[in-house]
Amino acid sequence: MSEQIDSSRDDAQIEMHAQNEQKCPMSLDEVNLFVPGSQPTWHESYKFLHNEAPVHRIPGEGLAPGADAFILSKYEDIAMVVRDPARFPPPRYTEAPKLEGDETDGSAMKDIVFSPQMNAMQVSMASLRPNMDLWKKHKRELTDPWVGAGADRHTKMITDTVDGLIDEWIDEPGSIDFVERFSRPLPQIVMTTNLGFPLEDIPQLAAWGSEQVRRYVHGHGHRNLLTAAEEADQVKVLSEFADYVLDHVKAKRANPKEDMISWLTQVTYKALDRKLTDIEIVGIVYAMQLGGLETTQYAIAEQARLLCENPQVFADLKAHPAKIKLFNEEVLRLRAPTQGLSTRMTSQDEVFQGVEVPAGSLLHMRWGAANLDPEVYECPRQIDLDRKPITRHLTFSQGPRTCPGNGISRLEQAIAWERLLPRLDSLSYAEENDFEYQPGIMMGLYRLNVDFTKAG
Ligand code: HEM
What we know:
Blueprint: E1 5-6, H1 8-17, H2 42-52, E2 55-58, E3 69-72, H3 75-83, H4 108-111, H5 120-128, H6 132-147, H7 155-169, E4 175-177, H8 178-183, H9 185-195, H10 202-212, H11 214-218, H12 228-254, H13 260-266, E5 268-269, E6 274-275, H14 278-292, H15 294-309, H16 311-319, H17 324-334, E7 341-345, E8 350-352, E9 355-357, E10 362-365, H18 367-370, E11 382-383, H19 406-423, E12 424-429, E13 449-454
Parallel strand pairs: 3-10
Antiparallel strand pairs: 1-11, 2-3, 4-13, 5-6, 7-10, 8-9, 12-13
Helix pairs in contact: 5-14, 7-9, 7-19, 9-14, 10-12, 12-13, 12-14, 15-17, 15-19
């Protein structure tokens, strides 16, 4: 059966309820995807971009002085860009750009002595995957076995975690903050267990995780810029995290356990025919922690939202659990947790949709808009479990740099609903809800109060 549910209704609901909301755009001139509070207007903004400016210039917002940035919103353009990393390489930031309103003279960054741990991610990228061939091998050999294709190894751990979280509230009178009690702790526990950190460290790890994603939440504009003072502050806090990870790497090298960090200390990286250094492992762990927490949390929270708004889908999934994965993919498409990233450059002059884009321009890939491209998706704003292939969306990107953690994230989402639905007879919005989204480029709901009835 095809689920033809009109999700424009819930767009309207978000707009009605969102706090700090920005006015819904009435024309292209009013579209601004990068101001706090704009989340509820994004779906409406994408219509203007698709119809009037599918390649939308942001003057002067490129990297070099005078260079421009361009928002790409068409599926075919973004898919082409991410599949051709030689023609569209990642940007190289050489210095922190000065922001309007930044009171510092920008010298703070120069004064910071970066500890080797703090630079671990760059160090590990430079030494373990300096080119696309090694990038692919790095993924296949070092992360896939734990968070990619091999994530199935975590099935029992994730199932136990999900069951444990449900047990904590299922017998309470039927109302909870779903984010606080389920969608946030699940990826926190899963990633902490995967890496092999003690579970009691989760509050501290969560604080470091928030610091890691600070630029994607509180950063300015499409480049997610922080002021020099904010950068300096972040470096200080994250140095502590890097030291913490390094201590664990050393301890696990000496005394390996059954976890990803221990395994990384022992494995031979065949692509380079050698073992990994401590700092390289710190770099990999840093990236896992950066990518692995909030994103999955937001995906599961949006799935809960769409189930609250579509009780017939709730009933259908309960009766046909095989459809859960299809539903999850549709919500990933409709509500991509990472809506856009300015992470590719043009290496030569290009023409997208008839628009000339000079070499050296910065490209903002708006995954969330490409997923609603009417040229690719019939009735793009509807949930349709019969779309084929349903995984075609760009939420995890595509090509050689596709998200390495999509395996574990999809597994968490699937198990979450496979275990939640049999234990619930209903799920709906509680009376009190502000539907407030965090600022930045993520679609991240702060809280979600739901009423539920326990399955009889
Ligand atoms: C719903 C959940 C998630 C979404 C929507 C998501 C989305 C993305 C996107 C769009 C990219 C950029 C790819 C590109 O530039 O082409 C990315 C990269 C990345 N993601 Fe995810 N991600 C998710 C979950 C995860 C998880 C669970 C992990 C870790 C276990 C992870 C780790 C990473 C890393 C490390 C990168 C950087 C690419 C690299 O260094 O190889 N992500 N992700």
